[in-house]
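Memo to structure team: turn this sequence into structure tokens by end of day. - J.P.
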Amino acid sequence: MRMSAILAIAVAVAMSSCDRVPSRQHLGVEPGPDPRSVQVRYVGCPGERELAVSIVRPDQEPALVLWEIHSRSGGSQVAFEVGRPAPGFSTGTSLASPLPPRQHLVALVRTTKFADVIAGFERNHLREGLVYTGDNKYLTEQAFDQRARETCK
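Reply from structure team:
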């Protein structure tokens, strides 16, 4: 377990009700193309690249990384389907089974701009066609993307 993931989980708990941190406006979670799959959605600012994407189960000691991909050069895609390889990324931890539906999980994205951006979620709370922002808000993809881009100004 990476030390940054442990630190990120502690920060996520401390900030769970705060949506004034600009980086949190860029990360969301949504249902994937398969009914039991999940996508991590990250809309970065111009020039920003994703270096790692993880799903962590924080209720275990130490926290358990369920899935992780990483890239030395970084990627610029918006949606990452959990359990699937992304172009330009290597798998650090393979997804062994579908994400549990009623378990609190944390999505983490490390970028060239931010150390770890965090969003907590439960798979069974995700809604088709909407992005869950980790702060009890659901937005359409278009509204989510627009909100993220506005914080880049």
